[in-house]
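#struct-help
A.M.: can someone run this one for me? Single chain, 93 residues.
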Amino acid sequence: MSVVKTGELEWVAAASFRENAEDPFQFDFDGRPLVASERVIRNVVIEAACELKHVGFSDWFYVSEWSNVIGACGVSSTEEYMNIERTSRKSRL
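D.P.: on it. C-alpha cells below:
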C-alpha cells in the first residue's frame, strides 16, 4: 500500500507485495525492474548445473541453493558460497 499526494489530495493505493516492492525501484531508476519468473530461474539453474556436469545432487537441491542461499544472501563468489554459514545444516559444504 502506498500513500500518494497530488496537490492537496491524498489517496491510498492498495497493491500486492510485489507491486509495492517495485515502487521504490521505479522512482530510483525510472522504470519497472525486470524480474525473471521462478520457472525461468529454475530452468537456467538446472541447465547451468548440467553444463558443469555436476552429479549427485537433485534439481531441487540446485534450485533451493540458488533461491535460499546464493540469491537470498547475495553470494557473489565460489569461496563465499563455500564458507557461508547455514542455520539448517550442521556443517558447511
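A.M.: thanks! Residues 46 and 58 are 9 Å apart (CA to CA).
D.P.: also worth noting: The mean pLDDT is 80.
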